[in-house]
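Kindly inspect this chain:
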Amino acid sequence: MEDVHELLQQAASGDAVEIPASLLPDHDAAALVFGEGPARLDAPVCDQQALAVGGQVITTASPSPVPVRVTFTVDGETVTGTLVTVDLGGDRALVLVDGVPADSVLPAGAWALADGRALRLARRTPAPPADPGRLDGLGRALPAVRPRAGTVRDRTVQALVTDNGIFTPRPGPTLRKGMRILEAPSVRGWSPIGEPGGENGLSVDFYSPPLRIAGALTALPAPDPYEAVVGGVLLVDTGAFNGSAMGAYVVPGSGAQPSLFAYGSLGSRVGFGPPLFQVRGISAGFGWNSRVRVPSADALGSFPFLVALDNPGEIGADDEEVDPLKVLGELIDGSNPWVRPQQGDLWFAAGLAFDCFESFRGHAMALVQTGSELTISLLGVGGTQLPTKSDKKIARIEIGIEATLRPTAGELSIGAAFTEKTFLIDPNCKLRGGVGMKFWFGNHPHAGDFALLLGAIPSGRELPARYPRQQQAGLTWGVGSTVNISGSAYAAFTPKSLMAGGSLDVVFQSGMLRAWLTARIDALLEWNPFYFDVGMGVRVGVSATIKVWFVKIRISVEIGVSVRVWGPAVGGEATVHLWFISFTIGFGADHRAQTPALDWDGFKDMLPPPENMVRTTAIAGYTGEGAPATRGAVKPWLVSSGGFTFTADTQAPVSRVFLDQNDSTPVATGSAVDILPMHVRGKGSELRVWLTYNGQAATLTRWGRAVLRGNVPNGLWGEQADAPNDGIIPDRILGIRLTSPPVDYGTDTGFIDEEAISFDPINPDGNVPLYAGEPATGAVPTRPGGVIAAIHGGIDTFTTRDNRATLAQALAGLGAGLGTLDGDLSAYAQAAGTAFTAEPMLVAG
């Protein structure tokens, strides 16, 4: 009682006090509520009558002070019980019970009260010590066997105290009158949505079993360069199905238009459909003035839109639960966000989560983005684990696949890679890396190029920056605590070469003894000209540290050999390494200083076939192919008399362009042509275009023309192999576009036979037949200007339509059956502009 009276007297003074440890004898239970330090009460309030003291205290559940009340139960001069109640707000509290306090309904210890439940506070159980006498199949020590006799397991639901606060598990679903009901407002991993922070938000929480809807709409922090960000989250749970939807409205700076996106998923814990193919989740989303960052294949396991198909709570979550608004912020914030504003862009996404044969689990998504660039992406993650029913897994394979098509740019990329969840034999045996493919086509400057890569290419054999980049492929395996195995591999297949290689490292470490084995191989094979360069080597070593008196001595022995062979001409070198000496022996031809020159036949094989080197393509005015065939299967073009445009281009750079067969003056002059594989510079290439009409040569000098320019690969037409601009030579002449001159229709209508004019009466009658010298009678026809315009502007007017309606009414009154009349005369007005080839001739009288 002396300690209690002293505490009450200190509290009566109003100064901060500390609860003596003697009043909280169960140190472990008190540490779960107050932490390891003493319980400090700020702004204390003393209640002498009830032997209680209150105030503000910092607990493990909140970083800011919260209300607390400490009540003592006494028997004479002895304190028999202590009851500490910490009010966390929202019908949540922490209770510390010691002894037998008055009105106590909880056993002694530390308790959390939440959602009408009492949960005992506990810390994470430390890992049991290893027993060196018990080893698994890989030689690793197993945990010691716990004695089971006489132990009573406490089955009370516990709340876990962590460094980040107190984790309160939500209750599982229960059956009530045959209905599945959730007793907590949460959806598979999401923490409940409360009131949004600040005053600029609203929340919704609807619960009508079995339906639960929770959501929030709030203003989020607007990172640079955004002016405002408004985000919303909606969670839905029906017991059998649950889902989430999230979206954001972003106002960028610099006066740009706002950006909007929304994404939602709906899933089921058990899935539906036949065992062959069970659907577990579907999703859909769209964005306006925004764009989605497409991840590489090895990063698909963390792509939020795919993860949300299976469990929305896993998006960006390190703990058991995650704040939905925090997830939304991570999607649009950071240095490399998943969704970013992009003016003029529009995207749509749809996904599916599925199981096959109850053993293969996958996620797939289609993403279409348009605006600044049309992009079509197919993304998927799939995997399996063996065995499928046992908790002990010997393998887990999960692969991400990404395929992206950019048809306008002329680029197709395909990638496949292991995710971070993949292992073989043992969870410590991790597989990594993947395969990437890229193709260029259409109008892309690298059209016809391709690359297939496995893993990361080592330094010294760099490839152009446009080729796909992959993570290092290989495995790492820690076998117990003494052996580490690591290996890597790479390969690259391009139009120019094939390179491949790999390495294996095995290290044994036990105390002061260390042994290692290293093996490597690298190979390079080039096609044009043919060349190979292969190297391989093995090293084995052992080292030990011994202590002589007070001095540690390290003894190391290593032996190895490596061989490198190249050709043609064939040569190589061999290196022998001993622990005390190394020496290299060369043989055959020396290593090439530069790539040897190709002859013309070798270089010609690198070019397209001759029939594809020069192309003529109809652009406008082409109406089909004529007959009969000329030059074998080639037919002449049938073109419109109103005008025609075609192009003539090549697969090689052009230094001069000529028109007509015998013209000696070029219409365009470009740079000289270099041929890098042949080591030839300053050559010329000519493109000559001519036209034949009905077998006769027709001049092209009056035709409109435009020179076609583009990029060519440096590997074919460059001066040096290590040229800048990513292996591209820009602005080279590749062809010409020609457009026929304007049509001269003339004044002659051509021959008109008697039948064509037999139905046209001539009034007044004249002398028949007419002769060129016959004198003219009557008024002379003239062709004044503006007649077509007068017809066009006078048909579809209010006056014309009224006169037409009056005439139709009069005819109907006379008994003429006119039927339904077309009141829209705009088509007749438009026809006046195309029905005449020249102004009509008029006779004034």
User: Anything to note?
Assistant: The longest strand covers residues 339-356.
